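Here is one chain, start to finish.
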Amino acid sequence: MTFADAKQRFSNRAADYVRYRPGYPAAVLDLLRADCGLRPGHVIADIGSGTGFLSELFLKNGNRVYGVEPNPEMRHAGEEYLASYDGFSSIEGSAESTTLEEASVGFVTAGQAFHWFEPEKTRAEFRRILRPQGWVVAIWNFREMETSFAKAYEDILVKYGTDYTRVRDSYPKGHDVQNFFLGAEFPHHVLPNVQFLDWEGLAGRLRSGSYIPQEGHVNFAPMMDALRELFQTHQEDGRVRVEYATNLYAGQLPVERK
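Its structure:
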């Protein structure tokens, strides 16, 4: 998978993504206030901002947010979703080339996107746009895997997904994030997060994955049949519980050696 390919993977997923993906717990802000001194006056560059879930968290905190998104469909979905916030600016750019001014932001953030970035070019670009003592924040919602529902859902992704295991294996571990920060210390927190989804919501949540076959693909119909059986087995009062662990990493890039 090339990084260029990654920028286009969600072109046909934007509607399902904005409707059915989980957001981020408000407790993320509490942790960033405590660990990084986050204040409403800080300017945020949200990289790979997509449909705007993470940007909205900071907008509600009173921050000015530049949402940098390379994919046109996802960028337009984010513009629509965040249209009521005066503090949001939508930017056509990428992690490697944000188009933002030098030393213009206090925080660079990425929600569900950091693993798509090309590390060396991204590190150089983040250094360029961050103010002195600025912070880089990476957040992922990882599905919890311990329940019988979660294990069966994972089996569906592995069996029917187009390249699910390759995408899954690209998600960074703690040591990968540490490599990005060049060994510098960084806080890592894990927060609980949960969705309650009816059948339409679960189907939309599945379809939002970039690795999910679309209608007309040979795997689509059997995949949806398997998902419906899973829903019927585990639903209570017409909904299933999907649990996540929201992982938050925050760090400061070491000063570049000349």
